[in-house]
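In this supplementary section we document a worked example of the pipeline. Step one takes a protein sequence of length 79 as its only input; no multiple sequence alignment statistics are reported here. Step two produces a three-dimensional model, which step three serialises into C-alpha cells for compact storage. The input and output of this example are shown verbatim.
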Amino acid sequence: LGIRATLKVLQDSADDIVEYTEAMEDFDRHLASADQEAYSSMFVEFSAAKGKPEDFYDRAKKDVEIMVKQLNIMANEIM
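The serialised model returned by step three reads:
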C-alpha cells in the first residue's frame, strides 16, 4: 500500500475521525506540494522560472516539516 492508502485504512482507528481526517488531508496537500517543488528543482535552471534549485528545496523542506506535524497528529489519534 502507498502512504495515502495506508493513512486511509488507519482512519477507521482514529479516536477523533474529524481531527484525523483534517490532518490526513493537510498531509496529502503538503505531500503533493513537496513532490512538485522537488521535481521542479531539477528543471529551474533550464526554464523561464526564476530562482535556484535551493529555493525549491527550501519550500519542499517546509512542506515536509508540516507533513511530520500532521503525521504526529494522526499517530496520536490512533494510539
